[in-house]
Amino acid sequence: MAQQIIIITGVLFGMLSFIFGAFGAHALKKILSNEQLQSFEIGIKYQMYHAIVLLALGLNSNGITTATYWCFTIGVIFFSFSIYGLVLSDFKGKKLQFLGPLHPLEVCY
Length: 109
Description:
With 109 residues, this protein is mainly alpha-helical.
């Protein structure tokens, strides 16, 4: 797997976690309940953890496998992005229940 793709993915996930964190701290803090905000922050934390690991693996030239890359990438999408979707849809009053079961699908870990 090309190291550049791994590094770019890590940078993108890291950048998005900062953007979502700022969005949560400034815009969502006023409209979400404490429980919803905590859930949103969990998604941000885990997204940042994944971004850091992807960056470390991408900068380490001793071979990250394609499967490892995809497990981390899909893990972020299934876990963090489903939390974002659940929290924001719950706020709108139309909770997307189908997103809930995506958390346990992180079978790559």
